[in-house]
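User: quick one
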Amino acid sequence: MHKIGRGHREKVQQFMAITGATDKAAIQSLKASDWHLEGAFDIYYTQLQIRAVTDSKLLEELYRRYKDPYAEMIMADGITLLCSDLQVDPQDIVMLVLSWHMKAATMCEFSRQEFIGGLQTLGVDSIDKLREKIPLMRAEMKDDQKFGDIYYFSFGWAKEKGQKSLALDTAIGMWQLLFAEKCWPLMDNWCQFLKVKHNKAISRDTWCQLLEFFKMIDPTLSNYDAEGAWPYLIDEFVEYLVENGLAHLP
Amino acid sequence: MSGPQRKNLFKIEPFKQRVELDPNYSDKAWKILEHAIHEIYSHNASGLSFEELYRNAYHMVLHKYGEKLYNGLVCSMTCHLREISKCIEAAYGVLFLEELNRKWVDHNKALQMIRDILMYMDRTYVPTSQKKTVHDLGLKLWRDIIIHSRNIQIRLLDTLLDLIYKERTGEVINRGLMRNVTKMLSDLGISVYQDDFEKTFLDASSSFYCGESQKFIECCDCGQYLIKAEKRLTEEIERVSHYLSSSSEEKITNVVEKEMIANHMQRLVHMDNSGLVNMLIHDKYDDLGRMYSLFRRVSGGLVTIRDVMTFHLRETGKQLVMDSEKLRDPVEFVQRLLDERDKHDTIITQAFNNDKTFQNALNSSFEYFINLNNRSPEFISLFVDDKLRKGLKGVNEEDVEMVLDKVMMLFRYLQEKDVFEKYHKQHLAKRLLAGKTVSDDAERSLILKLKTECGYQFTSKLEGMFTDMKTSQDTMQGFYASQISDSGVGPTLVVHVLTTGSWPAQPSIPCNLPAEILGVCEKFKAYYLGTHTGRRLSWQTNMGSADLKATFGKGQKHELNVSTYQMCVLMLFNTSEQLTYTEIEQATEIPPQDLKRCLQSLACVKGKHVLHKNPMSKEIAEDDKFYFNDNFSSKFYKVKIGTVAAQKESEPEKQETRQKVEEDRKPQIEAAIVRIMKSRRVLEHNNIVLEVTKQLQSRFLPNPVVIKKRIESLIEREFLERDKNDRKLYRYLA
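Assistant: Done. Structure below.
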C-alpha cells in the first residue's frame, strides 16, 4: 500500500468495500483500468467469471486428450486432432489467434501451461464452448489494437527456436495469412520484392516496422517520406516499386 | 544750501534741445553711396574716400535709415548686374565663358569693397532685420540675375558640357577657365553647382559613356576594352581633380563604372577567345589584374569573375579526371593536377590580390572534381610512390618538403582518405621490402605530415612498419653472430620480420622452396623462435627477392636479381633441361596467376630472356615448354628481372581493395553510432546520420544508407531500440 498515492488508496478501499475483494485483487483491477472505478469493476467481475466458469478438471482432461504420448506438450498430432474437433483448418487464422491467447512460445506446439492458461483466459473448458468462441476470435482480428498485438506476437511465435530472425518463406506465409482480410494492395509486391531482391531472413525490426508502414503509408506512396527512418529494406522496396512503375514518389 | 547730511549731487541734465537730423540727410547720404557703388562697378574706385563712405553708411544705420540703405543697395546692385548680364550675353562663342569669368572676378572685388564700406550695416542692421549680409546678398543677386537668367543659364551649361565633351574626344581645353567657372558655381551654393551643372553633367556623361562602351565592345576584345575602360576612369578622376568639385568624383566614377563595366560585365567575361576563361588559360596576369581591379568597383563584379572561374575550373577538372587517356599514367595525372593548382594559385596571387574568396573557390573546385574519380586516392599514392622511389633522388631537403607539402594539399581534398591510407600502406610495404626508398627522412617527413593532418591513428601502422625494418636488422645481426660456426656454407639469407597487423594483409600460400634455401630458413626460424617464444612465423614467399649467380652456355656469368618465385622456377633448371608449364607448377606450387606472370617476365621480356619459351607467344598455356637460354647476354653483370614496382591495380584487384575498404568502414561507423548514442541517450534518425558524418568526415564520407543498415544491425544486437511512440527516435540500451 505504501507506493500508492492517497487518492488511489481511497479508491482501493472503496473497491474493496463494494466488491469484497482482497486488496491485491483490488489494486490489480484498478491498475489495469487506469484507476477508474467503473472499469475496474468490469475487469474484476470478468476475471471472476472466467475463473468461476472454467472447471480445472475438465481442462486437465482436455489437455490429456491432445497431449503427445511421449512429451509434456501438445505436438503436431495433437493440434491436428484439436483442429478437426473444432472443425477448422489447421491453416486457419483462428489457430493463430488461439495461440496468441495461449501466449504460445512456438508454433505447432503448446505446453500444458499455455493450453490450460489460454482456455481459462477465454473462459471455456470444453470443445463445444471453444467452438462457440471461434467467431469472437475471428472478430478480434478486426480490432486494430488486438490485430497489432497478434501481429507482433506472430514474429516470435513463427520463428525457429534459438534464431534471431524469421526465415523468409515462413515470413511470407505469415504475412499472407495475417493480411488476408486487410486487403493491402502492396502485399503481393512486397513478397515478390523480397523473393527477388532480398532472399534472406527477416529481422524483428523490419517485421514490426512493416505494420507501421502499412498503417501510415498510402498504397500510392503519396505520403512516403524518404527521411522517415524506415528500415533500409522498406526503402529498397519503395525504390523497387518506383523502378517498376508501380508507384510514384511525391 | 542743504544741511550737513545731504551730499551735494552734481547733476548733469541731458540736452533738452534735440539735435534734429537734416531730413534730407539720408537722401544725401544715399546719393553719395549710390554714386560710390556705381564708381566701384566702373572700376573707378581709386577716387573714393573710404572714410567718408563708411561714415555715411554708419550714420544712416545709426539714425534708423538702415532699411533705406539696404533696399537702395539691392536696387543699385541689381541694376548694375543687369548691365553686366547684357555684356555677357553679347559675347560670342569662346569669349562667353571668359567674359563671364571676368565679370565674376570684378563682381567679387566690388562686393568686397562694398562690404567694407557697409560693414556697420552688416553688423547691426542685418542681423536684427534678418536680412542677408552684403556678401551673401551679392552672391544671391549674381545667381538670380546672371546665372539664372534664361539665356545665360542654358548657354553656360551647354558651353561647359561642350568643352568637356571636346576634351573627352581628345581636344585641349582651357582648364584654368573651367576651374574658375565651376568654382564660381560651388561658391554660389552647392545646390547651384549640382542643379545648374552637375546633374546634367552626369546625365551627359552617362550617355557619352553608354555610347562609347557600345562602340568599344563591338570592336574590341576583352583585354583591349578593359584597357580603354581603365583609361577613361583614370581620365575622369583626373578631370575632377583639375577643374571640378571633389564632391563629383565619386559620382562620375560611379557613372563610368556603371556604363562601361557593370552594364557589360557578362558580355566581357564570356567573350569568345578573349574573355575570362581565355585569360585564365593563357596566364594573362595583366589583363586579369585589370579585370579584377575594375570589377571590384561594381557590385557583383567579383562574384561574376569568381563564378565563371569556378565553373571553368570544375569543367576542366572534370574533363581531366574523366579522360581515360590521361588516366593511363597515374603519375602524369597527379602531376597535371599539381600543375593546374599551381597555375591557378599563381593567378590568384599575381592578379587577384591573393583574395581569400578566390582561394576558397579554387579549393572547393578542386575538392569537387578530384572526388569525381574514385581512383584519385590510389593515383595520389602512386605518385608519392614514384617520387619516393626515384623522383626525389638527389633533390635537396627544401625541395623535397615542397613536393610533399603540395601532395598534402591534394590529400586534403580527398573525401576518401581511408582509401589513400590503404594504398599508401601497400606501396610503402613494397618500397621498404625492396629497399627502394630514396630517402628515409622524406618518408618520415610525409608520415609526420599525415599524422598532423589526420591524427595518430592514421599513421601508427605505418610507423610500425618502419620499426619492423629496424628490428629486423638487429635480428639479422644476432642471427649471423649465432651462426659463425656455419658461415660460408649455403646461401646468405636476409630476413625481414613483419608484424601482422601493421603490414597490408596478404594471405599467401607458401610455395616449395629449393632445398638449399629451406635449410637456411629453418635455421633462422629456430633461432628466432628460440629468442621469441609464443610467436608464429610464416614465410611470405610472394614478397621476397633473391640474387642468383648464373653461368650461361658460353661461360658468361651474370648476377640475376629476381623475385622468390622466379628463383624457385630458375633453380629447377639446375636439374632439368626442359620443363613444361604444368611440371613447373607442380614442382613449385606457385599459384597459377602469379606463376604465369613470373614466367612471362623470365621468358617474354626483351633483353631479359633468361628462359626460352616454346611456342614464342606472349600468353602462357598449359603445355608450353621452357628451357634455359644458354645464349643469354647482357651488357651488365647485374641483371634485374624482379617483378615490377607498384603499379595501378587491375579491375579485379581494384574491386577487392574497395571491398576491403567498405568492410573496414562498417565497424568504424558502428563505433561512431555507439559513441554518439552513449552520450546522447536518445536521438532522432537524421541527427544520428549528421553526427556520424561529422565524426567520420576526416577519414571518409559515410553513405547514409550504410549508416542506416548499421543502425538496424545494432538494433538486432540490442544495442539500440526504437522509441515506442516515435518511430524516428532511437534509444541507447545500456
